[in-house]
Amino acid sequence: RENMHEKIDYVFKVVVIGDSAVGKSQMLSRFAKNEFCFDSKSTIGVEFQTRTVTINDKVIKAQIWDTAGQERYRAVTSAYYRGALGAMVVYDITKRQSFDHVARWVDELRAQADSSVVIMLIGNKGDLVEQRVVHAEDAVEFAEDQGLFFSETSALSGENVETAFFKLLEQIHRVVS
Ligand code: GDP
Ligand code: MG
């Protein structure tokens, strides 16, 4: 593993939220293991995954939490949010409803997490261009309005996943340092 022998300067807890089936678990597995798992049931039950990265000469251990299916019943517990310094709020660019629900997820996050939590809005499944129903401009507008960072990603191809996580971790580092 990268940085195995280096000392860790920071541990950042990041939570991934959003409607069921938008690709949260796959985003996480893409970032933590550079894998896309076609049988996504295998990720159920995993609480969090970690990846250690270097940003601005600091060794940062990102501890990224997965809802593991709780979101299906809107039963994400307060323990899940506790201590989170960053969050990815994910929707599926091919599912309008998943975008319509983003505001609710952001509200819940703001109510439960630290007030300085850094939030990144993610439009996932960017590879499914023909099925797109959520326009990037609408997401940009929402993100600007709410003070969120925004990116479209594909956990399947890997496009922008790494960049989005690095951006989030970099912003958290700015906040804490
Ligand atoms: P979660 O419920 O939000 O954790 O969603 P999953 O990560 O389990 O993914 C739900 C479904 O969407 C699975 O069938 C994945 O294979 C698929 N999926 C996830 N990310 C992508 C993506 O970027 N592109 C495409 N085409 N499918 C994806
Ligand atoms: Mg999942």
From TrEMBL:
Family: Belongs to the small GTPase superfamily. Rab family.
Protein name (database record): Ras-related protein RABA3
Organism of origin: Vigna angularis var. angularis
Superkingdom as given in the UniProt entry: Eukaryota
GO molecular function: GTP binding; GTPase activity
Residues of the full protein shown: 14 to 190 of 236
